[in-house]
Amino acid sequence: MFRLSFALLAAALVNFSQAQNESEIESAVRFLFPDSYCCTVLTLSPVAKHVAFPGQSLYNTSVDSYFDVKSKLTPNCIVQPTSAEEVATTVKVLTAASLLKPCKFAVRSGGHTPIPGSNDIEDGVTIDLQHMNSTTYNAHTQVASIGPGGRWAGVYSTLEPLGRMVAGGRGSTVGVGGYLIGGGISHFAPRVGLSCDNVVNFQVVLASGRIVNANKNTNADLFTALKVNYILEVKKTFENENLWGGIVTYPASTADQHFKSFVDFGLDPNRDPNAALIVFQGYSTASPTNVVRAAFDYTKPVARPDAYKEFYAITNNISDTTKIQPMSAVAAEFGSTTTSRVQFRTLSFKLDLATLQETARLYEIMLAEIQAKASGSWRISCLHQVWSTLYTANSTARGGNVLGMERYTENFDMYQSYLSWSEAKDDELFINQGLALTNGIQKFTEEHDTAVEYLYLNYADKDQDPLSAYGADKVAFMKKVAKKYDPLGIYQRLLPGGFRISNV
Ligand SMILES: Cc1cc2nc3c(=O)[nH]c(=O)nc-3n(C[C@H](O)[C@H](O)[C@H](O)COP(=O)(O)OP(=O)(O)OC[C@H]3O[C@@H](n4cnc5c(N)ncnc54)[C@H](O)[C@@H]3O)c2cc1C
Ligand SMILES: *[C@@H]1O[C@H](CO)[C@@H](O)[C@H](O)[C@H]1NC(C)=O
Ligand SMILES: *[C@@H]1O[C@H](CO)[C@@H](O)[C@H](O)[C@H]1NC(C)=O
Ligand SMILES: *[C@@H]1O[C@H](CO)[C@@H](O)[C@H](O)[C@H]1NC(C)=O
Ligand SMILES: *[C@@H]1O[C@H](CO)[C@@H](O)[C@H](O)[C@H]1NC(C)=O
Ligand SMILES: *[C@@H]1O[C@H](CO)[C@@H](O)[C@H](O)[C@H]1NC(C)=O
Fold first, then answer.
1. Largest CB tally within 10 Å, which of 1, 178, 242, 358?
2. Whole domain around residue 143: which residue ranges?
3. How confident is the model at residue 294 (pLDDT cuts 50, 70, 90)?
4. Is 230 near ligand 1, meaning CB less than 6 Å away?
């Protein structure tokens, strides 16, 4: 098992309706604290030594480490706590200070979500968990304690020498915290389930500043809701073995053959649970050929396993990086840091060949449009993954999650469009093209009855509503849990970024 202690941020007791005249208070606060009231209060608190201001090198390093350049904002200050206790102190200080003037804040772990304002804040305080990145392993319980601010590269390089592994991100640079909140799809998912279901304990900082554990026996409702909500996690480990994995690149003309093989793979009732697969169409200015790629990742050290047999019949590949290698090396190939602007969008639909072909038709239209209009360097990837019922097969026995997967008895295609570009002046072009693509696919799936309601939170865009897509019963449950553990709705009010249950 994977044991993860997570620190969730909790609630204090603020009643703004009691404030006499807010604009009068605001101007008084501004007069007393011309820089930033909330940041000044933090500098008078026990976390003062971890507060960084614009112009300082720690501040620069933090804002420069966002995956998506347009998500890099200019918070009034950044707090970098080193323990759950310091996260709790930060939350208590900000909520107490909010009695006078709301101290809005953001939380970030790896900073990989490409939605500006989800993991950063323009006029407020960013709590950056990057220093809480330790991974420790308990050989007796076979559980690893993983800090929320870690990247998966660090987790794998710590566990591999100990002969252990956990189900984590496929890319080395992805953060632990945000990844687990969305559920977490790893190469091991068909074998061991979603990453969030491998967590045995979350350490949570409540809005009151109290630190609690959430697991199957203690605060069990919070434990279930956090799988897709939140901070320090403890994950169950399993034996480490090398994988056979890599990326094979083919000419664009093989798209149809790939889609047919993908549908067969996805619908195979006897699918080998060691076999993970991503099929994607792509183009980049760095390597200007329209291609189809297949990422084969088999979680046992077996070269060319039969699970991908149908794909081996597509013989005209351009390059092939598959080999037997450790998870850390597989993750390094998938890992990327960007200096680009990024958009992710997601949709789900049935494993239906005509629908996949329609995604390819719309991809070609988008590619032509972008080629005609974009400047600088850019890249497009449109990814197909099988969402397998195996991912959540044993979820309930492990405390359940809020993804609402019980509704689905058939595997489906979880689609992601991933656009990245260098020029700010092209923001509108790429954002609109990505939107037109997923709108076009959605229209087709609705007309052909191949739509699947589910939206994977980790790939969702700002205007998408993944929490509603978990189903009305899960929304009601999350609202109830949020109210129980944060009765005053402090996190819902002071933490504006990300997908909030109060917005559903
Ligand atoms: C190159 C790349 C590869 C990827 N590969 C995969 C993959 O294999 N599988 C997969 O499932 N997803 C994958 N993703 C998606 C990824 O899981 C999400 O982008 C995820 O949000 C990243 O986590 P983070 O900690 O870096 O995010 P951040 O941007 O730091 O956080 C995301 C959100 O979670 C909140 N949050 C983060 N940490 C905490 C915390 N400790 N407590 C409370 N709230 C918190 C933030 O406020 C923010 O709203 C990938 C993304 C990229 C860019
Ligand atoms: C608050 O005070 C300002 C300035 O004194 C005034 O213009 C405004 O009308 C007041 N607002 C309320 C809601 O009383
Ligand atoms: C931080 O970045 C700002 C703006 O780019 C720059 O003016 C400043 O010199 C940097 N500070 C340090 C310590 O590097
Ligand atoms: C934790 O972060 C520090 C500072 O960024 C880094 O030097 C270290 O390698 C990281 N450790 C792990 C295990 O990722
Ligand atoms: C689910 O549980 C069964 C029975 O214990 C086990 O054989 C199987 O591997 C588990 N599957 C996942 C995905 O955890
Ligand atoms: C890719 O092509 C090379 C050269 O023909 C071949 O050896 C390799 O097996 C192919 N890879 C796959 C996955 O089919």
1. 178
2. 135-240
3. very high
4. yes
